Amino acid sequence: MTITAILIVRRGPGADAPSIRYVVPYTPGQSVLDGLRFVRQALDPTLSVRHSCISANTCKECMILVDGKVAYACTARLEPREMVLQPLPNKVHLRDLVTEIGPPDERLDHALKTLGCVPPRTPTR
Ligand code: FES
């Protein structure tokens, strides 16, 4: 018999957000991100999840709520039980588990460049 984990993914912030239940195979040592990557590969390619370094814990892009607590999906352990995953509640929600996590200065620079404007320079002392 295959041991499974059940990922309840809320596709938005708050308890009222629509959620989807995914059953994924469980192997000891796997991360929540491993489970989410399985979902994207085998069950639902529309699920949006952000990650970059995968378990190096350097990019911080996989930060989500796991059972109501802020965690890195790449280092949080997948467990053979029901786990509730949500996007960060205090960030701008982009899609599914993805929120805007870039520093405000970088977002402003990017927005200005996108609009064809020159970003303001920080005064030097
Ligand atoms: S994927 Fe980089 S910290 Fe999790």
Automatic annotation (TrEMBL):
A GO molecular-function annotation: iron-sulfur cluster binding
EC supergroup of this enzyme: oxidoreductase
EC code: 1.3.5.1
Cofactor: [3Fe-4S] cluster; [2Fe-2S] cluster
Residues that span the membrane, as ranges: none
All residue ranges annotated as the Succinate dehydogenase/fumarate reductase N-terminal domain in the record: 21-100
Pfam family, one: Fer2_3
Superkingdom assignment: Bacteria
Family: Belongs to the succinate dehydrogenase/fumarate reductase iron-sulfur protein family.
Protein name: succinate dehydrogenase
Native species: Methylobacterium nonmethylotrophicum
